[in-house]
Amino acid sequence: MTAFPIAGRPAFGAAVCLAAAIALHVQSRVWLLEAPGAGGELYIRSGEALKRVALSYDAVLADVYWIRAVQYFGRTRLDTRPGKSYDRLYPLLDITTTLDPQFNIAYRFGAVFLAEAHPNGAGQPAAAIALLKKGFAANPTRWQYLQDIGFVYYWWLRDYQSAASWFQRARAVPGAPEWLAPLAAVTLTKGGDRAGARALWKQMLETGEHDYLRRIAGHRLVQLRVLDDLDALNAWLARVRAETGRPVTSWAALAPRAGAASGPPLDPAGVPYVLDPVTGQASVSNRSPYYPLPLDTQARPGPR
Amino acid sequence: MSVRTVGRVAAAVFRESVRDRVLYNVVGFAVLLIGAALLLGQLTAGQELKIVKDLGLAAMSLSGLFISVFIGIGLVSKEVDRRTVHALLAKPVRRSELVLGKYAGLLLTLLVNLTVMAAVFYAVLALLAWGETIEARHAWEAPAADPRLLVAVFLIFVELTLVTALALFFSTFTSPLLAAAFTLALFAAGHFSADLQRGYVGRPSPVAAAIASGLYHVLPDFALFDVKAAVVHGAPVAARHVTIAVGYAALYAGGLLLCAVLIFSRRDFR
Known about the structure:
The complex is a heterodimer. By secondary structure, chain A is mostly helical. Chain A has helices at 3-31, 47-53, 58-78, 89-99, 104-115, 125-138, 143-156, 160-172, 180-190, 194-207, 211-244, 255-258; strands spanning 274-275, 282-283. Chain A has a two-stranded antiparallel sheet. Chain A is flat. Chain A starts with a helix and ends in a 21-residue tail after the last strand. Chain B is mainly α. In chain B, helix 8 (149-171) runs parallel beside helix 12.
């Protein structure tokens, strides 16, 4: 036996074994399909206990938990399987903010993640409010947390009285901007209508200190525009129905009336609006980045 | 006691430490960690700067801790185990000069390490700031290359002077393994001392409370040197806090060094 085959065979064997291990690992993603929302257990749920174990490295540990929270939220949000839940989101954020009580982003972004309606978010506005209250207790000069609580009451709980009250409380914090007072007034007088909501989000768009929060505000403003578009579209569909005596069953059926503008109408993201052939109502597609639209008294439920 | 002799011993320790491969590995690890922080920042949402700062300061503190413990415990015991202590003591070097020289040499090593790491740290932060938009920078709690971070780095060094003194103290009378265990145990306990004061030990009896209170004052209070989270969030650190921390470390480390000199002077190496 020459030296070459002796040296070559183990090398070939090693290459085969390693390639097989990698192939098995790739396939294991399919065979060991995780349940929705699974992935990464939370063995320690006490932030206080972790803070002690961390010695003086609690801030780094807070960063680790924050990354876990962001990754968990993103992974769950992208999960298309039914029955997904964000049950570990609040514990992760709670641990993060206990380890580092000044972790501003964890409170503000965390509240956005929690309050957002399911399936794009956790659909837990009460947990969002609890997180923001915890943040304000640890940072009594951060009026932004009280403003954010007002937003949660306004947008997700539709409690305009409470929203205005939280905006007023935010205004009372030393150093808070003056525009919070008119914001509270607008909330009280126009709460529930889109003009009020638009004023709120425009304010956030113009004054939000983080790019992410400004992007959220921009997204909400486009959603409000989509609601306006749908109102106009459905009013037009209602007129056609009144003229023809039957509901419009497809966008193609409207082509002769629409003239050159044939084809389905598109939302601002370029995704066609969906037409319910039974009711003849238009709505936003679940493929659109603006789905689901916020609860709105002027919007009507429709097929997705 | 001759300061010149102490200085010569310190220079020898520093040269040996710099030549030590483990030392380079730890520094390399810290630099790598700071670099990795840039990648880690991509995993999160808008907190790259905070994570880089947290990770950088923690890496400096941890690598400094490992250097002071794992080199500190061998400073004296290694000379005894290799029997080179006989050759050293045959020269005109007093035992106190040897202990203090060893201590000063390791502190010099730590200082050089921390300085290099701080320079790398600031370079990474400056790079991070350079790549960000003005709006993003406006949202930061504190500027990237915030000079206040130097306060945290300085207090890390002050903390390490105490850790090194502990390691050296234990190394004068016990094995390296036990010295490392005792030093690390006291480092951990020193972070719990505030809990002893606050009574987190479960509302104890008056005797237990007195013991807890005694331990709080006797154990080294390492929490006093931890301002990392505060400076990362841009909070100011009072000059009085820094002064008290420096004074406390000087007195505590001084006491430990005197004990180490006393024990080492009485040891019989025959």
